[in-house]
Amino acid sequence: MTVQIYVGNLNYRMTEDALRELFEQYGEVVSAKIVKDRFSGRAKGFGFVEMANKDEGEAAIQKLNDSEVEGRNIRVNFARPRND
Questions:
Q1: Higher pLDDT, 84 or 13
Q2: Can you give the CATH number for the domain in which 27 is found?
Q3: What pLDDT score was predicted for residue 8?
Q4: Residues 6+ apart with CB under 8 A from 75
Q5: 83 in a domain, yes or no?
Q6: Is 19 exposed, middle or buried, given 0-12, 13-18 or 19+ CB atoms closer than 10 A?
Q7: Residue 82: is its pLDDT beyond 80?
C-alpha cells in the first residue's frame, strides 16, 4: 500500500528530481511532485512524495521532518486527504 507524504517549507529552487533523491534514501519512491503556481509556473514551496510502503514512509518522516535541506528546515508528515 502506497503512502502520500506532504513536504513543506521547501527551497523554491528545489527540483522534483532532488526531492525524489532525498526520499529514496529511505525506500522506494513512486512519485515526487512539487506544487507550482498555475499562472507563473513558479514553485509554491511545498510538494508531495508517494512512497511504496508505509514503514519506509514513516522512516522518511522521522528522519527528514524539521531537517535542513537547501538552507530551509522542511516540514514532513503524512498528507491529509483533500476536502474539495
A1: 13
A2: 3.30.70.330
A3: 98
A4: 6, 7, 8, 9, 65, 66
A5: no
A6: buried
A7: no
14 is in which domain, residue-wise?
Answer: 3-78
Q: What does each C-alpha distance from 33 to 13, 16, 45, 57 come to in angstroms?
A: 13, 6, 11, 15
* Residue-wise pLDDT tens digits, 9-22: 999 999 999 999 99
- Count of residues for the chain? 84
Quote the number of domains for the chain.
1
Contacts of 14 (CB under 8 A, 6+ apart): 34, 43, 47, 69, 70
Asked whether residue 32 is assigned to any structural domain, the reply reads yes
* pTM, 2 dp: 0.93
Instruction: For 39-76, give the DSSP string.
Output: TT--EEEEEEEEES-HHHHHHHHHHHTT-EETTEE-EE
Kindly state whether residue 64 falls inside one of the protein's structural domains. yes
Residue 42 lies in a domain: yes
